[in-house]
Design a protein that fits this description.
The protein is α+β, with helices and mostly antiparallel strands and 416 residues long. Among the domains are: 157 residues, Lamin Tail domain (Immunoglobulin-like), CATH 2.60.40.1260; 130 residues, Immunoglobulin-like. The strands form six sheets. Strands 8-7-2-1-11-12 form a six-stranded mixed sheet. The protein has a five-stranded antiparallel sheet with strand order 19-14-13-22-23. A four-stranded antiparallel sheet has the order 5-4-9-10. The longest helix has 42 residues.
């Protein structure tokens, strides 16, 4: 009775923990237990949510079909984030470009694989083959060598391993087809670059490279490579699960790629996972701050209308400069016309300056009022002349007033 109660309690506790964790909804999406050797194993995660998930310290663990102990096969480093609608791959030694290494040792006939978070809470559980427990009570089928089991629909978790998973093989018509990595990158090409973003944006975080998919179908970019070629070469391997839709764009920022687009000129190459060059840009030369280097029908050119994740919009630096120059000249011409209307035209007798010298002096002083004739000069200076004479007379009076007074006093006295 007591054991039964404990069993029920543990069952409800497990269900509660799983229900809480399922809000994150990161799932184990695909499993391969072996190929030519035990080093051909992988477990692929998928984030079907609309937000990015921090999976720092999360673990993949394995338990045998009838075992009681869980063994950690891989631990996610601190600071790892899985983007929305993106995959995350744990892989053993022979798996190319895994997102995280994984220890081998998955049984081909049956076992359990679980995903737990940093707080040791269960996120997802898959029992396969001869496993004695599984979600829904029935395990998923066991994959054969060089095969994998995967969810019928990426990210779809009905809590029943038997119905959620199928053998991923061409013979299984129910399988959701997987786009082969780099099977055909034709029609995907480099479309726009931002080598020198304007302040307050920075080269370290806000430079970007844009790809465009001209096909009418989605293309998986997993494992493809972006790299610069001038100076110190930087490479960025596009993460697994990165897909660009038909007629869609994919933009990769320097904060994620660590690719530095040199301000004094650089070239970008787009390669498949076998390092075959799919496309490359010309060397853009000296970067123009705030302008993007974009592809148009006539070729690559600078544009003042950067358009990440959108169709390129052309307005060249030269066109903008020419436009600004024309606007400036038109404004200056209008200003000169306004000044000439307000200015009095000089008479032929007003100055002794001849020929080109007259024109030169007039041009140098075009913002000053011009003097029309000599009578105008006299009228402007007559007031100053009268004030000057008055000042002289006043000063003399102050100096000689006593003598003047004495002179008139004697004169008046003599007359009397």
């Amino acid at each position: 009775m007591v054991l039964g109660a404990l069993f029920l309690l543990s069952f409800f506790f497990f269900s509660f923990e799983k229900a809480k964790a399922s809000f994150d909804h990161l799932v184990i999406n695909e499993i391969q237990t072996g190929g030519a050797s035990a080093s051909d194993e992988f477990v692929r995660m998928y984030n079907p949510t609309s937000g990015n998930l921090d999976i720092s310290g999360w673990k993949i663990q394995y338990k045998s079909a009838t075992g009681t102990s869980w063994y950690t096969k891989g631990t996610v480093p601190v600071g790892t984030v899985i983007s929305s609608k993106a995959f995350f791959l744990f892989g053993t030694a022979n798996i190319e470009n895994p997102d995280n290494p994984m220890n081998s040792g998955l049984s081909a006939t049956g076992g359990h694989i679980r995903l737990i978070n940093a707080n040791v809470r269960l996120i997802d559980l898959v029992g396969y083959g001869t496993a004695d427990s599984a979600e829904g009570g029935s395990p998923a089928p066991a994959p054969k060598a060089n095969q994998s089991i995967k969810r019928r629909i990426d990210g779809d978790d009905t809590e029943n391993n038997a119905s959620d998973f199928i053998i991923n093989s061409p013979e299984n018509s129910n399988a959701i087809p997987i786009i082969q990595e780099n099977a055909d990158l034709g029609g995907v090409y480099l479309n726009e670059l931002m080598p020198d973003p304007a302040t307050p944006k920075t080269d370290l975080n806000d430079e970007w490279i844009e790809l465009f998919n001209s096909n009418n179908h989605s293309v998986d970019l997993s494992g493809a490579i972006l790299r610069d070629t001038v100076g110190t070469v930087h490479e960025f391997i596009i993460p697994k699960g990165t897909e660009v839709g038909p007629g869609g764009y994919a933009v990769f920022y320097s904060s994620a790629t660590d690719i530095s687009l040199n301000n004094d000129g650089d070239m970008i190459e787009f390669l498949d996972k076998s390092r075959n060059i799919i496309d490359k840009t010309p060397n853009y030369g000296k970067a123009k701050t705030g302008l993007s280097y974009a592809l148009f029908e006539e070729g690559w050119d600078w544009t003042r209308n950067p358009s990440p994740m959108a169709e390129n919009s052309f307005l060249s630096a030269e066109e903008e400069t020419t436009k600004a120059s024309k606007e400036k000249k038109s404004a200056e011409k209008a200003e000169k016309k306004t000044i000439s209307k307000k200015t009095v035209k000089p008479s032929k007798t007003s100055t002794g300056v001849k020929g080109s010298q007259k024109g030169k002096d007039s041009a140098q002083n075009e913002n000053l009022p011009l003097i029309s004739n000599s009578s105008n000069l006299l009228s402007k200076n007559l007031g100053f002349f009268l004030i000057f004479i008055g000042a002289i007379l006043g000063i003399n009076y102050l100096i000689f007033r006593e003598k003047i007074y004495e002179f008139y006093h004697k004169k008046l006295g003599r007359n009397n």
